[in-house]
Design goal:
single chain; 564 residues; alpha+beta; Beta-galactosidase, Chain A, domain 5; 2 domains; 8-stranded antiparallel beta sheet; 6-stranded antiparallel beta sheet; 12 helices; elongated; disordered N terminus
Length: 564
């Protein structure tokens, strides 16, 4: 009995510890024809502190593909004064409102129309990108090279139109123009499509000069620290990751938090990869295409009201356009919610990992897949969670039945255990010996009720991350007052029901012989209730349904065993 209680307390303690660590473990300190393009390794680093927005253009590698090594880079000319802005081009699709600055062709504002700030403000879209002083979150890209001027995110483009609306069309093309002093004509073309958060960007280069044009592409995301507003009461903020991330063919998915960017520049060469900025349910990612090799870099501007962090990529094999010809350099930006279906559609290896389920991803991914399939049938995430709970309970039924049978046997032995406790109250060693003899005689395994619980703990924690990280459940309503399963129950009804169900389970279980253990077990339902007051309602719903099913199953097995 004592061993069983220790195991059970350890299991429940593990749940508490892991959930508690989830709240606090990751709080950031701050928060085409005519040309070909591929990448080479190495090149100039982009991690030096910058005094204005113009020193963060990455340096160009040597225009050669014959070696993996490149010579010392040269500085990119500065094209404008710090703080200057151009005109705004406004683009409206069925999913986003976007603003593009003609200075640099930066995406300086992205509003997600299908993801309002809250369910109470359905007409107020969530603003993912912005440059609201002193905060900043923008996407920048351009071309770099040597011995001539290139259009980078300091270049002042011209445009013939400043307002675009998708309407009944399937695509919008936004065209910016720039002519370099040496006779090279550039068009920066943004392609926006219906029902898509994917922005394709082409640089069309028309070489009117008498020399070969050679250049490299880059793209970067610049951001000040993003903090998740406190919504967990005394537990603090949601345990979501805010910061940069990269993917490479060798090291796969890797987070690069604000502190790591502060410590020093990133300089990684890869043949397949991407760079991204993450915040809970949303991601912005440059997805380089059409090349074979890339260099991933990072940097920070400290001489601003808030430190400005950037993560980016650049090609290290050149695109080439001969005199009198034209070429196209292509890249892709994904900017939107981390909807798993859309992430899969991008064709970028590992992009789905931005939905971060942590070390239990192998368990969490099948759970989400099953939850999503059930939602396709119910069209209600609350009922999907309930049905998922039934299925999980069904899978673990044999283990749960074995656990409850063990508990029923232990409860049946309770009077005899109490007698032994009283008889050997002054001799603990003798009490332990007699207790083990009793277990052996009655063929009771004191740990039999604990192993099934331990096995199910990873499933619960994995489901916790699924409900916390999946944007599909953001602002998902269930019924009555539960209009957002990703937020806590506003009236604490579910947590109170959960606590009551845990208390009912406590009385169904055999009482511990040790008085201290008895007090601890009695206190656990109240402790869990306090914790769950600020947990996502979807997770509490799962726990409530699971507890109610467990009570029914345990009551049935206990009665059946008692009558036998």
């Amino acid at each position: 009995m004592q061993f069983q209680r220790i195991m059970l307390l350890g299991a429940l303690g593990l749940v508490l510890v892991m959930l508690w660590q989830s709240w606090v473990e990751f709080q950031a300190t701050y928060p085409g024809p005519g040309g070909q393009q591929s990448l080479q390794t190495s090149g100039g680093s982009d991690g030096q502190a910058s005094v204005d927005r113009f020193e963060d253009v990455p340096d160009a590698p040597e225009p050669t593909t014959s070696s993996n090594e490149t010579a010392a880079p040269e500085a990119v000319p500065v094209a404008a004064e710090s703080g200057e802005r151009g005109k705004l081009i406004r683009v409206a699709t069925d999913l986003v409102n976007v603003e593009i600055d003609t200075l640099g062709g930066d995406l300086v504002r992205v509003e997600l129309l299908k993801h309002p700030v809250s369910v109470d403000t359905p007409d107020q879209p969530f603003i993912l990108m912005h440059r609201d002083t002193p905060s900043l979150y923008v996407a920048q890209n351009g071309l770099i090279g040597k011995d001539r001027e290139y259009p980078n995110h300091n270049t002042q483009y011209t445009a013939s139109k400043y307002s675009y609306h998708l309407g009944d069309a399937d695509r919008i093309d936004v065209v910016l123009h720039w002519m370099s002093p040496d006779g090279i004509e550039y068009e920066k073309i943004f392609h926006f499509r219906r029902d898509s958060y994917r922005v394709e960007i082409d640089f069309r280069i028309r070489n009117h000069s008498d020399t070969r044009w050679t250049g490299f592409a880059y793209g970067q995301l610049k951001q000040t620290e993003v903090e998740t507003p406190g919504s967990m009461g005394f537990l603090g903020r949601l345990p979501s990751y805010n910061g940069a991330a990269i993917y490479t063919e060798v090291d796969k998915y890797e987070k690069i938090d604000y502190g790591e960017i502060q410590e020093g520049p990133l300089n990684v060469s890869t043949q397949d990869g991407w760079v991204a900025m993450l915040q809970h349910y949303f991601v912005s990612a440059w997805l380089p295409v059409g090349s074979e090799n890339y260099q991933l870099y990072s940097g920070v501007n400290r001489d601003t009201a808030k430190p400005q962090y950037r993560i980016g990529y650049k090609t290290t094999d050149p695109a080439v356009v001969e005199p009198g010809h034209e070429g196209v350099v292509h890249t892709v930006l994904f900017v939107g919610p981390k909807e798993q279906r859309r992430l899969d559609e991008q064709g970028a290896n590992g992009l789905k990992l931005t939905v971060d389920y942590g070390w239990l991803t192998p368990v969490a991914n099948p759970l989400f897949w099953l939850l999503d399939k059930i939602f396709g049938f119910t069209q209600n995430w609350g009922w999907a969670i309930i049905l998922l709970t039934f299925l999980v309970k069904l899978v673990f039924y044999p283990l749960s039945a074995a656990s409850y049978k063990s508990m029923a046997k232990m409860k049946k032995l309770q009077p005899r255990m109490t007698t032994l406790k009283e008889r050997y109250s002054d001799d603990k060693q003798k009490f332990q010996q007699e207790m083990m003899k009793l277990y052996k005689a009655e063929k009771v395994n004191p740990a039999g009720g604990c192993l099934p619980i331990l096995v199910q703990i990873p499933v619960f924690i994995a489901l916790y991350w699924v409900l916390l990280e999946s944007v599909e459940l953001r602002q998902a309503s269930f019924m009555l007052w539960l209009n957002d399963l990703s937020l806590p129950d506003p009236y604490f009804v579910l947590p109170i029901i959960m606590g009551a169900s845990m208390l009912a389970q406590h009385f169904l279980n055999p009482a511990p012989v040790d008085p201290l253990q008895k007090k601890i077990m009695m206190a656990l339902p109240f402790v869990f209730t306090i914790f769950f007051l600020w947990f996502p309602a979807g997770l509490v719903l799962y726990w409530v349904v699971n507890n109610l099913l467990s009570i029914a199953q345990q009551y049935y097995i206990t009665r059946k065993f008692a009558d036998s």
